[in-house]
Amino acid sequence: MLAFLFALAAAPLMAQGRNSQAPAAPPPTAKAAAPIDLTGMWVSIVTEDWRWRMVTPAKGDYQSVPITPEAMKVADGWDPAKDTAANEQCRSYGAAGLMRVPGRARISWADDNTLKVEYDAGTQTRLLKFGASKPPTGSPTWQGHSVAEWEGPRRPARARGPAAGGEGQARPATPAPTFGNLKVVTTRMKPGYLRKNGIPYSADAVMTEYWDLHKQANGTQWLVITTLIDDPKYLQRQWVTSPNFKNEPDASKWDPTPCSAAW
User: Is the domain covering 28-150+178-248 a CATH 3.40.190.170 domain?
Assistant: First the structure.
């Protein structure tokens, strides 16, 4: 009888031991999970829209940008002297236009879940924040609020079952391939210019970027940022561009310069 009662008492404990699972490990930080390394020095190589990026376009030159009639009125009133007087000389250095301004970017980790992108043209800094992040309160800023995530192959789930550690222990998963890209969605931008000559984007604009790293056989690294801008107020349809950057070995050519309303 005693043996029978002992067996009844032990059964739940044995079942619990078989079904128990090890505590889930915390998810890796964005820095630890990075499938590509974007840190370092990058210089813009202007192969796209050279005539509108290397010099200030003429007033009224809207070619290739699908602007609305309302945006055209704003651009027709562009006056760099007025922007300077109003302390708005950074209008063409906001997030939606910054990466198309010729210059250099210095990318580093501000912390384990925030990429910092410093740009010498206009002396601007973007913070790309990983994970669920509520937009900040207060007024919009030139660089807005950027939420980042890595895109790429999913890591296999850790299988359960018999393993070297015993029954119920997780078996090591096969490492995922180390390739992918960075997706960044930016909102809450202060109204600025898509081009130096006053083509506007509004506070309602949303910018989605895909940062892709390409390595050549000779070791040269290229960064291509496919950029999609949606603006219900000033764009008739989505505007797509793809500024290119080439990796540099050091910061010897880094040259921070203030914003300028006109070159």
Answer: no
